[in-house]
Amino acid sequence: MKHHNTPIHVEHVGIAVESVRDVEPVLVALGCQKLLDDTVDDQFRWAYYRLGDGSRLELIEPTGADSFLTNYLDANGPGLHHVTLEVADIGAVVEAMEANGFSVVDYERRDEWSEAFVSPRNPTGTLFQLMEYHDAYERNRPHPPEELFVAGSRLSASDED
Q: VOC domain: which residues (predicted)?
C-alpha cells in the first residue's frame, strides 16, 4: 500500500437537503453557528456552519431543476453527500489514492484552491472531496481565518508532526 505524508483533516461533512430553511433549525438546536450562505450558478445553494471548536457542516440544496444535486436527492433522498478532507498537498494524496487503485475524478486547480473527488465506488461508499487551499483563498475573502478554516488557518506542509 502506498501512502502519503501530507497533513490532512476533515474540513466538513456535506449533507444534501431539499431545503436549507427547513433543516437549519436542527443545526441551530445542535449549537451550530452559520458562517456562510451562498449559491453556485443555478446548481445549488450551500450553507456552511461551525459546530463547537472546529467541526464544520455544510447543507447543500438544489436551486436548479436539472442539477447534479436534484438527481442525487431523487435517487438517494436527503442525507450524507460527501466528506471534504483538507490536505496540505493534494498532488501527494491524489497520487497515493491512484497508486492504490482508487478512482480520482474532477481534479481541478483554481487560483484559490485545488480540488479532486475520490469516487464513492470505493469500499467506504463515500464521496470524498479533497481540497487544498491556496494563499489567494484567504486574501480574496472578507471573512476572518477562524471562519474560513478549521483551527483558524489552512493546512501547510509545515503542519507535519
A: 1-133
Dump pLDDT digits (tens) for 79-117: 999 999 999 999 999 999 999 999 999 999 999 999 999
Burial class (CB in 10 A: 0-12, 13-18, 19+), 83: middle
Domain limits at 130?
8-159
Whether 2 is covered by a domain: the verdict is no
Give the phi and the psi of residue 99 in degrees, each rounded to 5.
Answer: -65, -25
CATH code of the domain containing 150? 3.10.180.10
Rounded-to-integer distance, Cα 101 and Cα 84, Å: 20
C-alpha cell at 47: 450553507
DSSP H or E run through 35: strand 33-40
Question: pLDDT, tens digit, for every residue of 10-36?
Answer: 999 999 999 999 999 999 999 999 998
Furthest C-alpha separation in the chain = 46
The pTM assigned to this predicted structure is: 0.91
